[in-house]
């Protein structure tokens, strides 16, 4: 919105009022100087509020580029540039390079049209800062990250009993090996080694013992020296006991071991195994018994996950099949389908999962790759059937040859997981409970019925820090009110295209756990890092943002130079502050000594 007309109208009314006050004053001495001083004071105030600029003709040789120094730049790199226009946003850089001019708004560079290009040295700027350039062409000379963590991710929200899985890439340019240690409560929980001169991925795991908000540490050690210590904030919630219904064609080993594992881990399990036509063996574990001879919508609605043999699901009568499909599509029931040897079918649970067979009849056991884990599992007899890769499915489990052995897809409000694996119990027989738990925890987590929520908070900022605004996204069915962050109230901005999305910007004043909540809403916690945390990751993010800006605005460079033959010069506001001060001083002194 252009406020200039409103400011002008207000100042005109103010000037008229000031002149009228001087005219009606009984003492008429120095009337004209008083009127002039009043008008000058109001005019100076208006010029302070309204930015004034003028244009001058400039020659091409008068044009120049400016250097913007950002963190990470090399002093030696300044030798190759002859420009005297050095700028920085960083006070520390200003101390090291006294001739650099510290600015607080990048728009100052944009408003000086004698600057046709800004050359950025160092790690660059973030998206918020780059927006202030308003399309001004940039040249960027990033400094390569020579040592440190160059990629990192971990699951920040966990349920009790779930693994904390930290994955990343470390670049080691030292002549000695590096040790990465995951620390919790001053105790080493997991570690790995990065060899000298290598860039390698790493994976650290632990099962958190304490629920609530926890902060783990990732230590980078070189001999007896600590090169880095980074914070790993994690929130662990108490897991809600899930209810699982198993429909099996017979009480085989796979079903028996799965039932035992589910019950041992606190799941409520109901198993219905076919004995003969219309006769079933039923087991109820951690749950009260109820009639199960006939499946209905009321029965399916009791459970969060259904694990069923494909052959059993296909033979449900029409009423049971309709009730199951309705509960999946409309109420979000998740289904894990244990496939048989049939490769293709028009059955709605198999339609999206086209399968194929290996060329060999008796394949050797293979190691599996589970989604979210870098380490391979122990070897398993995976059988000869695998799932073909398709656009509408997500691979969850595969082997090293890329054969998909478990995949998921959407089915209305619910999800389906399809897997031909039918001998995972052999892991348990071999004493390998870790891979068994990892596989079935993954499959169950992908299909669990999600409870409807009226709101959802997401932290959009990758690494929230004290030096930058934190962006929070609220998805709400109703208009949010009284959003509170650390005792302060902040107004959200609605997405013009997605009306249920609201953006909240917040400048944190302290590091650590912060909370956000709207009136009658859920309390959402997020973590704000210190400015010294995750330096290498944040530097790479700035470099990526700056490179993207340079590419996006490179086409407009020549056009910008052509239309800037007339230079726009912004009048400094200091002049108007001086005029205002002088006018007010005259009026005060005149009234004081009249």
Descriptive key words:
594 residues; 26% helix; 14 helices; ten-stranded mixed beta sheet; alpha/beta; Immunoglobulin-like; 5 domains
How many discrete structural domains? 5
Structural class label: alpha/beta
Share of helical residues: 25-40%
Q: State Rg.
A: 34 Å
Please report which band the strand proportion falls in: under 5%, 5-15%, 15-25%, 25-35%, 35-45% or over 45%: 25-35%
The total of helices stands at 14
Using the coordinates shown, work out and report the CATH topology of the largest domain: Rossmann fold
- Cα-to-Cα separation, first versus last residue: 45 Å
Number of extended strands:
35
The stretches of 5 or more residues where confidence is low (pLDDT under 50) are 58-63, 555-564
Silhouette? elongated
The major pleated sheet works out as:
10 strands, mixed
Per CATH, the superfamily of the largest domain is Class I glutamine amidotransferase (GATase) domain
Task: Give a structural overview.
With 594 residues, the chain is an alpha/beta fold. It has a ten-stranded mixed sheet. Strands 4-3-2-5-6 form a five-stranded parallel sheet. A five-stranded mixed sheet has the order 8-14-13-10-11, with no helix packed on it. α2 (31-49) runs antiparallel to α14 (574-592).
């Amino acid at each position: 919105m252009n406020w200039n007309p409103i400011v002008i109208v207000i100042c005109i009314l103010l000037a008229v009022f000031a002149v009228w006050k001087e005219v009606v004053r009984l003492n008429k001495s120095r009337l004209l100087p008083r009127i002039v001083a009043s008008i000058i004071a109001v005019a100076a105030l208006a010029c302070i509020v309204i930015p004034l600029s003028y244009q001058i003709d400039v020659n091409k040789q008068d044009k120049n580029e400016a250097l913007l120094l950002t963190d990470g730049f090399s002093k030696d790199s300044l030798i190759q540039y002859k420009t005297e226009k050095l700028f920085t946003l960083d006070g520390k850089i200003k101390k090291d390079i006294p001739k650099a001019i510290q600015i607080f708004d990048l728009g100052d560079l944009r408003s000086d049209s004698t600057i046709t290009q800004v050359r950025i040295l160092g790690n660059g700027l973030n998206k918020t800062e780059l927006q202030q350039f308003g399309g001004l062409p940039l040249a960027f000379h990033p400094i390569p990250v020579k040592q440190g963590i160059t990629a990192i991710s971990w699951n920040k929200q966990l349920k009790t009993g779930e693994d904390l899985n930290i994955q990343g890439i470390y670049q080691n340019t030292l002549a000695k090996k590096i040790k990465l240690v995951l620390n919790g409560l001053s105790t080493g929980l997991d570690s790995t080694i990065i060899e000298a001169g290598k860039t390698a991925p790493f994976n650290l795991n632990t099962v958190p013992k304490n629920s609530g908000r926890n902060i783990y540490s990732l230590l980078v050690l070189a001999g007896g020296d600590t090169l880095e210590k980074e914070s790993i904030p994690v929130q662990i919630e108490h897991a809600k006991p899930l209810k699982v219904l198993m429909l099996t064609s017979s009480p085989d080993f796979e079903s028996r071991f799965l039932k035992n594992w589910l019950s041992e881990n606190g799941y409520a399990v109901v198993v219905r195994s076919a004995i003969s036509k219309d006769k079933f063996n039923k087991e109820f574990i951690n749950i009260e018994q109820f009639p199960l001879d006939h499946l209905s919508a009321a029965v399916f609605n009791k459970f969060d996950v259904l694990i069923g043999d494909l052959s059993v699901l296909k033979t449900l009568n029409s009423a049971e099949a309709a009730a199951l499909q309705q509960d999946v599509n409309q109420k979000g029931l998740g289904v894990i389908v244990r496939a048989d040897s049939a490769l293709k079918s028009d059955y709605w649970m198999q339609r999206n999962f086209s399968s194929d067979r290996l060329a060999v009849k008796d394949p050797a056991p293979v190691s599996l790759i589970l989604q979210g884990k870098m380490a391979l599992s122990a070897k398993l007899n995976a059988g000869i059937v695998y799932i073909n890769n398709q656009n509408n499915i997500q691979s969850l489990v595969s082997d090293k040859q890329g054969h998909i052995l478990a995949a998921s897809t959407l089915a209305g409000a619910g999800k389906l997981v399809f897997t031909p694996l039918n001998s995972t119990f052999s892991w348990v027989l071999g004493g390998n409970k870790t891979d068994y738990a990892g596989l079935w925890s993954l499959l169950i987590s992908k299909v669990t019925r999600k409870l409807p929520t009226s709101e959802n908070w997401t932290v959009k900022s990758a690494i929230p820090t004290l030096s930058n605004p934190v962006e929070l996204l609220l998805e709400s069915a109703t208009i949010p009110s009284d959003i509170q962050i650390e005792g302060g109230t902040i107004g959200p901005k609605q997405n013009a295209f997605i009306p249920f999305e609201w953006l909240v910007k917040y400048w944190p004043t302290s590091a650590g756990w912060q909370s956000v909540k709207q009136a009658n809403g859920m309390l959402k916690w997020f973590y704000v890092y210190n400015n010294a945390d995750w330096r290498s990751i944040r530097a790479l993010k700035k470099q990526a943002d700056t490179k993207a800006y340079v590419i996006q605005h490179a086409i407009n460079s020549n056009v910008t130079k052509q239309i800037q033959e007339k230079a726009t010069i912004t009048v400094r506001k200091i002049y108007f502050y001086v005029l205002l001060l002088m006018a007010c001083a005259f009026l005060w002194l005149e009234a004081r000594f009249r």
